[in-house]
Amino acid sequence: MGNPEMIRQSIHRLKALRQDRLLSSSLYLMLSMAAVSLAGFVFWIIVARMFDTETVGLATTLLSMSMFVSLFGLIGFDTIFARFFARADNRNELINTGLLVNAIITGLLSVAFCMIVPFISPSIAFVAESPLTIAAFAVFTIFTAWNTLTTAILVANHNSRPVLIINIVFSLAKLVLPFVIGGDDPMVIFIIVGIAQVINVVLSMWVIIAKTGYRPSFKVSGNVLKQTYRYGFATYVASLLNLAPDSLLPLIVVNEIGPSAAAYFYIAFTIASLLYTIAFSTVQAIMAEATHDEENMMLHLKRGIKIVMAITIPAIFAIIIVAPFVLSAFGPGYRDGSYLLVCLLSVSGIAVSLYAAIGAYFKLTKNLFFLLVAPIVNAIGVIVLCWLLAKPYGLLGVGWGWLIGSFLAVFAGGIMVVIHRSHVARKERQAS
After folding, report:
1. 76 CB-near residues (< 8 Å, 6+ apart)
2. Angle at the Cα of 311 from the Cα atoms of 371 and 238, rounded to 5 degrees
3. I want to staple 160 with a disulfide (CB 3.0 to 4.6 A). Which of 18, 28, 205, 214 is the partner?
4. The pTM is what?
5. In the chain, how many domains are there?
6. String of DSSP letters for 223-236
7. Does residue 14 carry a pLDDT above 50?
8. Which domain does 307 fall in, by range?
9. Alpha carbon distance 135, 141 (integer Å)
10. What angle do the packed helices 297-328 and 21-50 form, to 10 degrees?
């Protein structure tokens, strides 16, 4: 029999952990993103077995460009929801405005992309072959953006548990669809992922309506745009810069190295993204918690960084050890083509975690100028270095470009944090 006092203390600790909203929200988001990532591995294993590497490379490049277009269409509403939804008096207007404005802008940008894609990347020009393929690209890109927005709403409303359930359903749907929808070209893979995005958004909207009392309408509020445009625009630019490398690198790889290399890159990045989701899910939880408890903002941020590092560092070693076996499941060529890139991208997880924390700090303190410094360095550093190193060194050069560019961004952001904290301390001394 165990010591009764030790048992009581253990039960007390477990209860305390369950009541810790930052930790529980972070864990639910990590689990939901882990479910998506793990299902993504299985999905791409299925796809890699059903399609040749060139077809997979072209499809993943098109998916990356769809994600990039969807980010442009967000115009900062994902961060606006995270920062303002919890205390908003006009939630219906806020949600309606965000979703409708996003749909209009994303739709227009999607059509514009299809018009120019034959000139910037002829290898994926098949998306502009007919009005039907253009419409499919636009519609599924809108739902990709709405997936981001609805998740932001649920997290801001402390509904992280439904996000986990929705992502599990989304993941299962994506695994089944390749056996239901036939075909042998890249557009088929794109449509399969797009249908899964639609299922995710429908489920998320159902939960939002049930949990918040939201009532959809086709009305855009000028007041919402006026109240949030300054904060939203700055965070929007930061988000675009943050995710530009993720979205543009497949295009660089397919243009500079080839479609097969694009497939190897995408699979490697999917594996490394497991680490990145730890950082970004914790940041989402920090934003939601700090919005409800602004007085203890720095406490939440520091605890979030500890949580991220406690998981990220052991996970890097685990991925480096396990990756060869995982890559072998994708088929011949993936292990040799992707492993070293996986290692470099995984080590970059430390930089990505610190970078995410720096971004959260400036979003919470609403310092919009300093917020943009690290993303600018990250976007320029990663994209330029990867572009310069891709041709002579292949995917290994892309990996080194990502690693060096990420740590340069952390260095620049860290300097900005030190400057800002010194400025705040000086103001506090003057006030006292």
Report:
1. 228, 231, 232, 233, 234, 235, 236, 239
2. 15
3. 28
4. 0.70
5. 1
6. HHHHHHHHHHHHHH
7. no
8. 21-424
9. 10
10. 20
